Structures
1.
Amino acid sequence: MIEKSQIQVKKKEPILLGDAKTLKEEVLSISDVEKTLFKGGMMGNRPLEKIQPVAKNRKRDRNDEEVSNNNKKNAKSYLWDELINDFEKDNPYGIFWKNYNNMKEANTRGADKYFHSLANCQAAQKGQVVPALKISVAREILDTPKNLIKGLSFKESINDSRDDMDANLFGLKSGLKNFNTECRYLVEKYRPDSLDEKY
């Protein structure tokens, strides 16, 4: 019978993760690593001046991207404005469109005939008499049923369209006779006193 004292128990050697030869050295090395990592916060012993440039570079990249996007938006906006300006400057449809928007923006009672006459005058000065006349007639044809919907009688609607056409024709004649005078002065008789001076 084998006695317990004769049995040799083989000690289980610890599994070491690093280059240490003993468990004590392993623990000490891990402790040193922990101190290095966590001393002064999660960023360890890395000097603050080495960390800041990284954040600054990231912020600079974001700013550069924002500037680039803004430049693209500004470029698109500029091109669009240029197209609109060209459209409103020489094109009869653009001239009428601009005056229509101004009339809506002004929102002044009795100013519609002024803007009708003004648009026709400006188109005539550009040599666009026939297109202007077509636009004016088409507009009055469309306005007649609108006036009926608003509650005007057929006779009132016809009279309103006739007055608008008188203003249109006055603007056309004024623009043809006076190429060097601003149309706002040529059609001033249709201008209501309450209308803003900028129009």
Note: DSSP finds seven helices and no strands in the chain.
2.
Amino acid sequence: MVEPSHNDDDASLWPASLRLEHGVFESRYQVLRRLSDGGMGEVVLAEHLSLGKRVAIKIMHPQYRGDAATEERFILETRAAARIHHENVVGISDFGRTADGRMFFVMEYLEGEDLAQTLRREGPLPWKRVVHMTRHVSGHRRGAPPRGDPPRRETGQLHPRDRRRRP
């Protein structure tokens, strides 16, 4: 089992909506730290207790609990992402509803930097690289809902082979 960290990402410092008993989510995921906060939900890094595999878990914000339209959008996003099987799109491995009624899904966790970090580090990217990256993403959006918070890899997470430094 992974020991929870005791730094700024410590679960005791998170909003009450994400505080979990002993850092364990749904009795099978040890929450390690918060990764991001989007319009529809928060994403945390966790490790499956039995498998030892790191995953990212998107948990719907509490204010959307019971909101039929938002929940339907969350379900559509999850189903669309789960139907896509491609090396450049994160895989979905679990889906459900917490004891307090919030929806969640579990996806593959990827190490790396997002597009915003790359742009801050490198500045404007060469157009050939942008075209290459866009081709990897654009072909996989068919069937995905038009709004929502798609998994980070679809919205700017760079595949390791796309993290080339400028010459």
Note: DSSP finds four helices and six strands in the chain.
